[in-house]
Amino acid sequence: MTSDKTARLFPVTEDETNFSSEFLNLSEPDTKLLTNAKRSKYLYLLPLMPKWAMDTELAEKLVELGSLKSALEIYERLEQWTDAAVCYAQTGNASRAEELLQKQLDNNPLDSRAWSVLGDIKQDPQYWEKSWEVGKYANAKKSLAKYYYNPPKESGLTRDYEKVLEHQYDCLCANPIDFENWYFYGCVGLEIKNYKLAAEAFTRCVTNDETSTYAWSNLASALVELDKMQEAFNALKRAVDAGDKSKRSWRIWENYLIVAVKIGNWDEVLYASRVLLNIRNNEGSLDIPIMEKLVNLLVSQHYEESNLSFFQKSCIEFVCKMVPQVVNHNARVWRIIAKVDFWRGKPWLALEDYEKAYRAVSSSPDLTTDEAIWNEAVESCHELVSAYENFGELPGKYGAGDVICKDWKFKSKSTVRSLISKGKATWEYSDGFERLQELKKEVMSNK
């Protein structure tokens, strides 16, 4: 039977008839102002808090804002001695805090929170143990776990992971919905390489708070160690989307990149590489072997400018536009860029890239002191001379009957002579210098 058909002892009043239209008209909430008399009819429905409860909440807010003195006055007036002791301890008056706690415990020896706070002030495990004994107070076990994780120097103890996990587990049993407790539990699991425990802990973390970037990231780290790469990648995707993006660490994107490589998701590898380059904006943000793999995938397909895929467009922009703005002195990178420029039918740009690669290594201050740098310079010289020979006679950029490098033979000879003069005093009897002399004979034979 519906409410409108229910038998009534009294007829429907006018107020009841107009109630829904006047008071709960959600479609047009401001069409009619209610009189004070009508509003006052429903005051008795408001769940008003007692003054002491409102004062307690006010004191808690004052503590959050750092106004401990004002909060302390309220706690003492309300005779909440444990909270007052916390305020005294935070202001450095530990003796007064202990006095108040002892007063509270004299009145109520079973106050587990007071025992725990006393343990926090004295840093004495016996008080936390007492708190757990009398009231299973979760924070007491939390404090014990932190104590054995980072024991005071005067205690003479060393970090004891077994006790840390034991006490933290008890804490979680008593309070299984606290984010911070699960996060600490997971971090300890990562430290001792118990990745199954860590994965479980961080899973509980992200269940409680889906916006925690670092919880998602740590979950991914544990899953990687458990060889669950796809699950780890999914967790990292949540990590890069969660929380405040302006405060996100570049290391999360680096992990994202590495896991994407392991599962072979090259679209995401490219995306992460671009983001890392934007965030760090330096040469260290570029993983050159990964960049080479991306380029190999790119040039493995035929270049059609009018029919490029999104991956191809994005990769070309990354390699040919973004990377050169950040990396200027790495010969290996310039050779990779040259490969892409040649693939897209721009040999004049490829030749410029080889010239930049050679200049990057030949101008190194370690050229005359580090044989590895010298050998790299010799290799770059070989590649540049080969590029002059291969690209020099090709049609130029504008296709107006010109060539890319008309005097390529002269430039080849000048390049070899210049490097010989730089290295003769130091590397005259090295293998690299002998290779350079052979290259000189070859270029001199070109008429």
UniProtKB/TrEMBL annotation:
**Can you tell which superkingdom this protein's organism belongs to?**
Eukaryota
Q: What is this protein called?
A: Unnamed protein product
Which UniProt keywords are present, listed alphabetically? Repeat, TPR repeat
The organism that produces this protein has a lineage beginning with: Eukaryota, Fungi, Dikarya, Ascomycota, Saccharomycotina
